[in-house]
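2024-03-11 09:14:02 DEBUG pipeline.ingest accepted 1 chain
2024-03-11 09:14:02 DEBUG pipeline.ingest length=122
2024-03-11 09:14:03 DEBUG pipeline.predict start
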Amino acid sequence: MRLRDARLTRPAEFARVFAENQRARTDSLIVLARPNGLAHARLGMVISKRLLARAVDRNRVRRCVRETFRLLLPHLPACDFVVRLIARPQPGKEAHDLGRTFERAGQRALAKWPAVAASPSN
């Protein structure tokens, strides 16, 4: 599997996760999760200018989130994850506790929708 296949790219994919999800959060990020019926997890991010005006700061948060997701990908449940920035993170602590948050949101989503989780289509 290519890492590009592990990304949410279409607005409809994001909308599906925003419509019904299970959540877990850190101090500055919230992780929304919903089972996707695939054999692997996928990631989407919402990092707004309102909280981080400088592009370099937004890109640093994106890099940290993507790297944490990449390292955890083999261990994550088959869910679509959307990471949303909810507060300005302290420099150097962008992904603090994010790994545990991914796993917690994924487990909650699997518990809520066990039928979707049990039927991978790929």
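2024-03-11 09:14:41 DEBUG pipeline.report The CA atoms of residues 17 and 34 lie 6 Å apart.
2024-03-11 09:14:41 DEBUG pipeline.predict end
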